[in-house]
Amino acid sequence: MERHEPGASLPSGSAIATRVGSKRVRDNIVHPVEISTPTPQFVSPSPVVYTEVKHFKKWASWLIPVFVIANVVMFVITMGVNDCPKNSVFCIARFLGRFSFQRFKENPLLGPSSTTLRNMGALDVNKVVHGHQGWRLLTCNWLHAGVFHLLANMLSLLIIGIRLEQEFGFVKIGLLYVISGFGGSLLSALFIQYNISVGASGALFGLLGAMLSELITNWSMYANKVSAFIVLILIIIINLAVGILPHVDNFAHIGGFLAGFFMGFVFLIRPQFGWYTQRYNSHGYISAATESKFKTYQRVLWFVSLFLVIVGYTVGLVLLLRGVDANEHCSWCHYLSCVPTAKWSCNAQPKTCLSTETGNQLNVTCTSNGKSNIYMLSGLTDRQIQSLCSQLCT
Q: Which EC class is the enzyme in (predicted)?
């Protein structure tokens, strides 16, 4: 910031001073007055009083902790509804009662069954398109597949979200979170046609994308911007790379990231420091030039990003409601979510089984991998048989 000192001393010798706007002036003539200057004396100028200008308000973060609590509460409710001892044959940590977990072979994340998640509002394309349950595009963001899934997402949300909420406020960050989560669900629904999807990862990647766009649009305000940009890019690449593992919905990550990236240009734009300085400067100083509130490139990014978000969401919703499978138009896109190796398969076909019961024997055969098993059980419910099917097909 420039420092303007209006109290600078005049040079020695005769000087010309002018009085403008004096009440004693009787005409429109400005009279020069000769001033005799004796031996120079150094007079300390009157001290200049500077007032602190707070360029950006710091907010108290409360919405992100509320989001974390809401996700935890939803997980507890989901586990209560799951009631593993009642609806499954095998459970982990049975001492927890109805809150015990499904078997690791069925759910390695320590969580409920897929049937419970589907009933609680998981993203199921068939129900969205043919059952007119579009609300699943939002509710799936508040459900988690297990304890490990919940802990990873909530810790990330606290680290990323609190900082952003302190900088930009709960309204902008809350909208970013919800819009990004919806965008992740939308892209996931276009590509993941057979499996359900849950988790707040799409919204989290949206916050990461918003951090990147915020750095770009407010580029001139940062000191170590290049190093910050490189670190942020590396973090995003590493997190997206994890998404190529099986059972991870990387399309939700990509969709959420793109939505948050573009909305960051809209929500997280900052006025220039020069504009703030002019606005809050003392009245005694008049700037020769007026500083614009936003730079031209910021305005361009704002309009282009808003246009792309509106068009993208509109086209995506139209394609989804028409039942379009995006994999049919992009033969390689499925590799963005899962890369098959000798260690795992990326087969996303639904798990179905054939079961026959003879006396106290239950024979279950998985139609997708051909495995079969005989269980010495009888009188099982359909939900318990589905649980055995999920374990056999995994």
A: hydrolase
Least Cα distance to 61 among 216, 170, 219, 160 occurs for: 170
Q: Hey, what are 99's tokens?
A: 């809150």
Kindly state the tokens that stand for 224: 């170590």
Q: Which residues of 282-307 are buried (b: 16+ CB within 10 A; e: fewer)?
A: eeeeeeeeeeebbbeebeebbeebee
Task: Please give the positions annotated as active site.
Answer: 201, 253
Length of the chain: 394
| Paired strand residues for 197 | 123
Instruction: Determine the pLDDT at residue 116.
Output: 94
CB count within 10 Å of CB 132 equals 9
pTM flag (> 0.85)? no
Q: Look up residue 294 and give its two tokens.
A: 């936003």
Q: What is the average pLDDT across 157-186?
A: 95
Residue 371 vs residues 103, 156, 350, 355, 366: alpha-carbon distances, Å: 18, 39, 15, 12, 5
Which candidate, 319, 78, 311, 312, places its Cα nearest to that of 193?
319
Looking up tokens 């919405």, which residue turns up?
63
Taking each helix axis from N to C terminus, what angle separates 225-242 and 201-217, rounded to the nearest 10 degrees?
160
Q: Which string of b and e fits 179-198 if b means at least 16 CB within 10 Å?
A: bbbbbbbbbbbbbbbebbbb
